[in-house]
Design goal:
By secondary structure, the chain is α/β, with parallel strands linked by helices. The protein is 39% helix and 14% strand. It folds into 2 domains: 7-262, 3-Layer(aba) Sandwich (Aspartate Aminotransferase, domain 2); 267-407, Aspartate Aminotransferase, domain 1, CATH 3.90.1150. It has 15 helices and 12 strands. Strands 1-7-6-5-4-2-3 form a 7-stranded mixed β-sheet, with helices on both faces. A 5-stranded mixed β-sheet has the order 8-9-12-11-10. The relative contact order is 0.12. The structure holds pyridoxal-5'-phosphate (PLP). Residues 93-95, 98, 119, 121-122, 162, 166, 191, 193-194, 213, 215-216, 225, 227, 353 line the site of pyridoxal-5'-phosphate (PLP).
Length: 409
Amino acid sequence: MAENKNPLADPKNQRAATKMVHGGTVRSQHGETSESLYLNSGFIYDSSDAAEARFMGDDDGHIYSRFSNPSYDMFQDRMCLIEGAEAARATATGMAAVTTAVMSQVRAGDHVVASRALFGGCRFVVEDYLPRWGVESSIVDGRDPQNFANAMRPNTKAIFIETPSNPTLELVDIEAVAKIAHANGAVLIVDNVFATPMFQKPLELGADLVTYSATKHIDGQGRCMGGIILGSKELIEADIHTIIRQTGPTISPFNAWVMLKGLETLALRVERMSQSAAKLASFLADHPKVDKVFYPHHPSHPQYELGKRQMSSGSTMLAFEVGGASGTSEGSNQEAAFKLADALSVVKISNNLGDAKSIITHPATTTHQRFSEEERLEAGITRKLLRLSVGLEDGDDLLDDFAFALDQI
Ligand SMILES: *Cc1c(COP(=O)(O)O)cnc(C)c1O
């Protein structure tokens, strides 16, 4: 076949939605339309010489699915195209991605700085696990970049942030914090779950490693656990690949294949979900029984300007507080929040997010139950706070569901 001169033959010249349908695809000799699932743990060599060469790294074929497999490659390569990353490695869960990314950059005697508003598991890794291995950590209020600068020490090797944060959608200025990290010779790791690969590009803003829980929007249909770490060839192929190869927090071929197929519809899904989220944020903000709404592209968000600057959409997630007028004690506020969640019908009570199905969560009594009262309130997680992951249902049904439920409290 003659060489194709069409510029679109190079996936880098394709627009995002096209990359997500075709990126990374490698077809077998059968020319299958949909990507094959390589559900195998090992690989066969033509000869002992070939096996030796493979282990020597003289050819880049696969060895063992603890660290590489064609189904992982396709998922990783498609994600690299979307993220603008040189390399990536998929992991079993989002927590495996975060833990591997952070652990790959530190050893005993080092120091890590992290923003305060973190997903429960991430905060546990930074605050509880790192010190067990002799790595000190500082937790700072991420809303002001100066707090990171003040916390830096000569032995600080990494800054870890999540923006928007779970569950209060606080923002961290990625570009400003990247400059602080680099001035101190540290790497910046960004957990980009809430923004999705569509709405925020941490690598373009200066981050060194980006992590996702692929369990969330990338699968997006509540089926599989997964995660991924993206960054430069240097960081991924040396640090990240080695730790994954030797410790095994790997994704499974089946889950990598589901994630790969999930990416084909990611752009459509998160665009629709964020449109509904923006409408719901406005509706809730104007409702007399709602005290406060947290949505990065709603003008009431205290970091609205930053949200507009570093995110191309307000995201598919929002949070809000109810029941302020009906009582001031923490207990009565929880009552209103529970009553509201229980009165919803289309929106389900669960703790996942990024799903096709809309999900409401009461963080104080579920995802953040382990926090002390003081830690919880410091993170802005009152008992009247509800977190909403907006799904793919008809946006008007979601509005009607909330209108009905708010009438009940
Ligand atoms: C869910 C989540 C994680 C952890 O991902 P799992 O796939 O559940 O392990 C990490 N960070 C954020 C922001 C998340 O929402």
